[in-house]
Structures are given as C-alpha cells and as structure tokens.
Design goal:
The chain is α/β, with parallel strands linked by helices. The protein is built from 10 helices and 15 strands. The strands form 3 sheets. Strands 3, 4, 5, 6, 7, 14 and 15 form a 7-stranded mixed β-sheet that branches. Strands 10-9-8-11-12-13 form a 6-stranded parallel β-sheet. It is globular, with a radius of gyration of 20 Å. It binds NADP nicotinamide-adenine-dinucleotide phosphate.
C-alpha cells in the first residue's frame, strides 16, 4: 500500500472540540515487524479521546501533532509485518491501538499483533469496535479490582455500577451478572428499562434524592462500586459500603489518588481504588468470544460515517450516549 492515500480525521492542536477535527488525505501507514495493517470497518469513540484533545493528559498524549484520534477498531487485515505469526490478509479482527499513536479515525490503521484478536462472523464490526477500552475497563474493574469471578464461582458480592447506561457501564452490568453478584445500577429515568434488560437487579434514577444518595432500594451495602461517572464525594459512598467495600474510580483525579493513599496509610478497610486500564489481548479475545456466544452485547448508541466524525465527537462530549458511539469509514 506504500504511497497510497487514505481519508482520515485529525487535529493539530489542543482544544477546539468537534470543530478542531479536520478531514485530510494522508499516506496509508506501513506495518512494522510486529504490526498488522487493517482496512477499517468501524471505530468507537471513548471519552478519553476528546479529553486527550482537550489537553487533559498532556504532555503524555498525544505525543505529537497532527494526531489521528481513537484507539478502538474493527476491520480486515490487508498486510502483515514480517514477524506477525497469527494473522494473514483477509482475517477479520478487533484491535486496540495505543493512546500514544491513535489512528482509528481513518480508512486504514496499523495495530500491534498483541492487541489484535480474531473476530468471528457472529460479531459485527461495530459490536467488535465497541469492546476495547470500555469492555476491557469493565472487565478489569470487576475481575481485578472488585474480585468478581465471571464463571460464577466466587462468593456473592453486592456491586453498584454508576452510569450503567454509558459505554463502560453497559458492559459492566452484563459482565457482573456472569458472576455471583447482586447488581444495583444508576442511570437516568429514560434508561431504566434498558439497564434492567442488561440484567441489573435494582436500578435507581440518579436524578432522584435516593439515586443521588446511591441508596439501594432493598438496603444492600455494596462490596464494590464500579464508578463510571464523576462528581460523587466519598461522604456519599461511605454509608452505602460494606465494612470492606471498595470504590473503583474510573476517572481518578489528584484528589482520588491522595484519598486512596491516605486510606491505605490509615489501614481503612473501606478503600478508594483509582483504575487505569492496562489492556491485554487475551482479555479482548475473551470479550469477543462472549459476544460470539451471545453472553455479552455491545449496545450501540449511534453510528456516524467518517465524513461526519465531528457529530460522533460532539455526541461523546455531550455525555449522554446510551452505549457506544460508532464511526464507520
Ligand atoms: N480509567 C480508565 O482507564 C477508563 C477507561 C474507560 C473509561 N474511563 C472513564 O469512565 C467514564 C465513563 O466512560 P463511558 O465511556 O462509560 O462514558 P459515556 O459512555 O460517555 O457515559 C455516558 C452515560 O453516563 C450517564 N451519566 C452521566 N452522568 C451520570 C450520573 N451522575 N449518574 C448516572 N449516570 C450518568 C449518561 O446518562 P444520561 O444521558 O441519562 O445523563 C450516559 O448514558 C469516563 O469518565 C471515562 O473517561 C476511564
């Protein structure tokens, strides 16, 4: 593909939101030894993508401008690097790109073999592209931080999932219910039936007094909170936690980190745990197989063509998506 041009969407400085995105033609990237070149069929947007554009993760991300954002993709392998063993041209896959390099809002992208997994026919490109950041984060929070065993073998745990209607929350509810759990979920009134359909045992509307107090209607104390939204103080969580309860904060600011260290130093049994996704190919493969087997679904909020990627971007910034926002080249 050397020398061939592709359509892509990129930004060249911090800030600007949807209007900072520019449609360009750039060379199709060339895969390195351990990479595959994919013709993309779908990409999904995560809040981290526009937070990066805002400069919230500077100077780490992005490393340089111009930058093609988005990491979560599904497509077809068209070329492989010389060291790639498990894929060949024509294979359908799901992959996660590095936050350093991005590249998902384009017709083609190069992905590391280690974060590329096969996509069976039963899993559409959009369903697959929804999984990487949101699905892996839900998986890591539940299995690693909250200690839920997804084969239903562990002790019963009471779990609260905040913002259960969002990209991470919808996967977290479904994955939690594969384990031995009682799930309470918060969402807005319009999404209560939807979150119930994902398997949540109890739902509270976050705009009611009971919902904003995170109270379980049946009086459950939570062993773990998968906290997918922001702006809820520790004093609201504390009375709702079991004696060893943990809040797993997916959007940790400096305050979370300080509180988390303080609770460790003071031997507090209730813990605040900041979570940063460490993506693993084997876990992505596990999630794709759950979708294949009908045990997990990607709920899609909306699909947008690459030519209107700024609409998808604006929708994510708005913060009211139900499920995943997909961009299709
Ligand atoms: N640490 C990590 O590695 C990591 C990884 C992935 C995501 N994250 C972070 O996790 C957060 C969630 O990500 P996401 O992709 O799930 O976001 P998202 O899809 O944009 O979440 C949108 C949903 O949140 C709901 N919501 C907003 N405020 C709420 C509240 N106070 N209570 C209950 N529901 C509320 C909205 O419902 P309404 O429309 O009804 O308001 C909407 O359905 C983001 O801050 C993201 O940056 C962190």
């Amino acid at each position: 593909m050397a020398g061939k041009l592709m359509r892509a969407v990129q930004y060249s400085s911090y800030g600007g939101g949807p209007t900072g995105l520019k449609h360009v033609e750039v060379p199709v990237p060339t895969p390195k030894k351990d990479e595959v070149l994919l013709k993309l069929e779908a990409a999904s947007i995560n809040p981290v993508d526009w937070k990066t554009q805002k400069g919230m993760l500077r100077p780490l991300f992005p490393r340089k401008f111009p930058f093609i954002p988005c990491t979560d993709i599904a497509g077809e392998v068209v070329e492989v690097g010389s060291g790639v063993k498990n894929f060949k041209a024509g294979d359908k896959v799901v992959a996660m790109l590095s936050h350093f390099s991005g590249g998902g809002l384009a017709e083609f992208a190069v992905a590391k073999e280690t974060l590329t997994v096969p996509r069976p026919l039963e899993v559409s490109a959009a369903e697959g592209a929804g999984l990487p950041v949101a699905g892996l984060t839900a998986h890591m929070a539940l299995t690693q931080s909250a200690g839920v065993k997804l084969d239903d073998s562990g002790p019963r745990k009471n779990i609260l999932i905040t913002a259960a209607s969002g990209g991470v929350g919808q996967y977290a509810v479904q994955l939690a219910k594969l384990g031995n759990t009682h799930v309470t979920a918060t969402c807005g009134a319009r999404n209560m039936d939807f979150v119930k359909s994902l398997g949540a045992d109890e739902i509270v509307d976050y705009k009611t007094p009971e919902g904003s107090a995170l109270k379980s209607p049946s009086g459950q104390k939570y062993d773990a909170v998968i906290h997918c939204t922001t702006g809820i103080p520790w004093s609201t969580f504390e009375p709702n936690l079991s004696s060893n309860g943990k809040v797993i904060d997916l959007t940790p600011g400096p305050g979370t980190v300080v509180s988390s260290v303080w609770k460790k130093l003071t031997f507090s049994k209730q813990q605040l745990v900041p979570l940063l996704l460490i993506p693993k190919g084997e876990n992505l493969d596990y999630l794709v197989k759950l979708v294949e087997g009908g045990k997990l679904k990607t709920v899609i909020d909306s699909k947008h063509p690459l030519s209107k990627a700024e609409d998808a971007w604006a929708k994510s910034i708005d913060g009211h998506a139900t499920g995943k926002i997909i961009v299709e080249p």
